[in-house]
Amino acid sequence: xNAAFAWLFDPEHWSGPTGIPARILEHLGYTSLxxxxxxxxAVPLGAVIGHTGRGTFLVAGLSNGLRALxxxxxxxxxxxxxxxxxxxxxxxLVILAVPPILAGTYSGIRNVDRAVVDAAHGMGMxxxxxxxxxxxxxxxxxVLGGIRAATLQVIATATIAAYVSLGGxxxxxxxxxxxxxxxxxxxxxxAAGAIVVAVLALVxxxxxxxxxxxxxxxGVRDAARAGRSARMRRxxxxxxxxxxx
Amino acid sequence: xxxxxDVTKQYPDxxxxxxxLDLTVEDGKITVFVGPSxxxxxxxxxxxxxxxxxxxxxxxxxxxxxxxxxPPLLRRGIGYVIQHAGLFPHRTVLDNVATVPLLTxxxxxxxxxxxxxxxxxxxxxxxxxxxxxxxxxxxxQQRVGVARALAADPPVLLMDEPFSAVDPVVRDDLQQQLxxxxxxxxxxxxxxTHDIDEAIKIGDRVAVFRVGGRLAQYDTPSxxxxxxxxxxxxxxxxxxxGYRALGFLxxxxxxxxxxxxxxxxxxxxxxxxxxxxxWAVVVxxxxxxxxxxxxxxxxxxxxxxxxxxxxxxxxxxxxxxxxGTAGSLRNALDAALSSPAAVGIAVDGRGAVVGGxxxxxxxAALADARRSGEVPG
Amino acid sequence: xxxxxPWPWLERNLDDIAExxxxxxxxxxxxxxxxxxxxxxxxxxxxxxxxxRGILVPLAGVLYTIPSLAxxxxxxxxxxxxxxxxxxxxxxxAIYTIALLVRSVSDAxxxxxxxxxxxxxALGYRPVHQFLTVELPLAVPVIVAGLRVAVVSAMSLTAVxxxxxxxxxxxxxTEGFLRNNGVELVVAIALIVVLALVIDALLLxxxxxxxxxxxxxxxxxxxx
Lengths: 245, 377, 224
Known about the structure:
heterotrimer; A: mainly alpha; MetI-like fold
C-alpha cells in the first residue's frame, strides 16, 4: 500500500506530458468531448420522442440492449474495424453515453404533469413552444441526471480505453500491468492510477450534483426528486436505466 | 372478560395516550370505544393483544394478566380486523382466511376447508376464494378481513375502525352483517370507531374517550343519549341526541288510529268521498301502501286512481309487536313528520297498512312512558 | 481486420470457448448471488432504522460511482489478494450488486403497506416468520428487477477483468484484439450479450412464476 502512495506522491509523476495532471486533463477532455456529442444527439431525440410519444421502443430497446454489451468488446471491435486512434474510441464512448441521456430526457418529458402541458396548450402556445418553454425546463432534473450518469459511464469506459492506446488515466493501470506486477512501475503505478480515477469520478459526480442544484428551478427540483427515486435506478457503471418493474 | 386496571400509556416524548383507564369488557357483548382522534381509543384496543404494551397498570384476559402470555400466542387467540382490512396482497383470499389455522398448526386441507366455511358465513360467493385481495371491492375485502379474524374461532374479536374506509351504503351493510354474525357467534367484541352513530347502532356498551386518553363515560347507548355524564359527552353525542334516544323506545304504546285507504285503480269519485282531512292512502291488493292522494291530485286523474300520479309517502313504521319487530318511537315520529298528510303510516309484519299516527300521539305516548318511569327523564 | 468464415476457428477452439464461458459465468454469477444474500439483511436494516439507511444508501452511491477498472485494480491493495485472483473481479461485482440491491430491498420493504404488517403481527406471526413469509415475498418484484440489472451488468463488466489478467470471455476479447482475430472477438462479445439476455429472460420468468399475484392485480387494474 505504501508503494502505491509513494508512487502517487512522487513529484516526478506530477509533471510533464505523461504526468498525473496531464493525464487528468486528457481524461476530462475525452469525457467532455464524448458527452457533448452524445448530448447533442440524445437530448433533441429524447425530447422529440417524449413530446410526440413516437419511437418509445427505441428508448427502452437501446438502454436494455446496450447494458448487456461489454464496453471492452465495443472498444476493441471498433478499433479493429477501423484503426488505432481517437475517433473510434470517441465513437464508442458516444454510443455508450447516448442511452442514459436519451432515457433521462425521455422520462423527464414524460413525467411532466399532464395538467401543466394541457394548460400551456390551452393558453395558446404552439407545440414547439410547449416543448421548449414548458416541458424541457420541467424535465431538466432528469435530463441532467441522465447527463451525469452518462458522464460517469464515459469516465469509467475511457479508463478501459487505455487498452486500445488511448491516453488519460487508464494509461497508469494498463502500463503498470504491462510492466509486470513486480516492477517498481508495476502494481504501485496501477493502484495510484486507480485511486486517481476513483477520486476523479467522485469529484465529477459531486460537481455535477452541484451544477444540477444551481441550474434547476427550486419548484421543479422537489417534485422531480420523488419521481426519480421511485422510477429510476442506476446501474453499476453509472448508467441511468428505467427500472423494469 | 377483559379488564383494564388503571392502565396508562405514556410515550417517551411525554405524550399520554391513555390515562388511568379502568374498564371491564363483558363477555359475549359488543363494546365500542369511541372518541375524537387522539383520545387513546385505538391505543387501548391495541394494548389488548399487546401490539402496544402499557406503561402502567395491567390488563386481564379471563382473569389472567396478558403480560404473562407470549404475544404471538396471545394474538392467535384474538381476532383482529382493521381499516382497509390489511389483507396479504400476495395470497389468495382463501389462503388469507386460512392464515391463523395454519399458524396454529392445522393441516393445509383442514385450514382451507375452514376458510371456505368462513367465506360463506360472511356472505362471500365461493368464486372469490381463488382471487387475490386487490381484485375485490372495498366491502368484499372488509368481509374477508372479518372472516380471517374469525378463522381460528377466537373468543375475542378486536375491530379497529373496520368500516370507516367504505362508502355509507356498504358500511350499513357490513354493520348489519356484524350484528347478524354476533347474534349467532356471541363473541366478545371490542370495536373502535370515531363515529358516534356507528357506536350507538352496534354497541351493547359504549365507552366515550376524551382527548388525553381519559374515559369520559361508559354506558349503554340509550343511557349515553339520555344522560350524558358531562358537556363533553353531550356535545360529542351530538345535538339530536334527544331525538336519537327515541330510537331505543319501542312504539308499542302508541295508539294507532284508523287511516283512510283507497284501492289503486278504484273510481276517482269514490276515492274523493273517502278522503279524511283531505288525504287518503292508496294501497295495492295486499293493502301495502303505494302513496297518498289529495283532492287536488284526484282532480287531475280521469276515471280511476292512477298509481303513477300519487304523492309519495313518508317513512313507514312497523307495529307488529307479536313478531318482536316493532318499530321505535323514532320510527313512528319520523313516519308522521315525513308524511305529506302529517299522518305516519303503520304497517304490520307483511307490510300491510294497519293505521296511522300523528306526531301528537307519538309525543303523548312518550310523555306517558316518562310518567310511568319507563324512560329516564 | 480479419473475419474469416468462422466455423474452422470455432471448431478448433470449441473447448477453450466452453471453458472461458464457464469461467465467465462463475466470475459473474457467484458475486451476484453473494451480493443478493448480503443485500437482503442490509436492505432490511436500512428499511428499519433511519441511521442504517443514512449510512448505507449514500455509501452505495459512492461505491457505484467508482469506475470498474479502478475498483478491480484496488482490490489487491485493500484485501491483499494476489494480482491475478478471481476475487479481484468478484469483489467489485459483489459490491456493485450490493450497492444496487440494498436500495431496492430497502425501498421495497418500506413500501409494504403498514396495515399488512400490522395485520400479520396481530394474527400472531413471530418476527422472523413474518419477514420471510409476508414482507420479503411482497418485495420480490422490486428485488428481481434490481437483480436483473445487476446480473446483466455483471456479465458485461466481468470482461474488464481480462485487462488485469483474469479469465473468462474477456480474455477471448483481448486475445482476439491482440491477434487481430475478428472471429474470436465477435464470438466472445456475442456470447456475453446472448448469455446476459438469456439469464435476464430466465430471471424475468422465474420472477413472474413466483409472484402470481402481481399479474392478477394488473389484470383488474386495481391497486394494492
